[in-house]
Design a protein that fits this description.
The protein has about 70 residues and is mostly helical. Helix content is about 80%, strand content about 0%.
């Protein structure tokens, strides 16, 4: 947690960071495909990012009272 940051603010930041990370990974996969390069590992990493994102979103829902 950053100094002065609440848990809720931290989790919101993690969710936003995750959205950006997933977008970058999707763009990378698209570039690899355009370049006719293997995408298996990049897609596996994307799946991991998406799993982590789901956990962050569930955590956010729990602590913000939306669960």
């Amino acid at each position: 947690m950053r100094e002065g940051e609440t848990e809720l603010e931290m989790v919101r930041r993690h969710v936003e960071d995750g959205v950006q990370c997933i977008a970058r990974q999707r763009a990378l996969i698209a570039q690899l495909r355009r370049d006719h390069l293997p995408v298996d590992e990049a897609e596996a990493l994307l799946a991991t990012f998406q799993d982590i994102q789901r956990l962050h979103e569930e955590h956010l829902a729990r602590i913000s009272g939306d669960a």
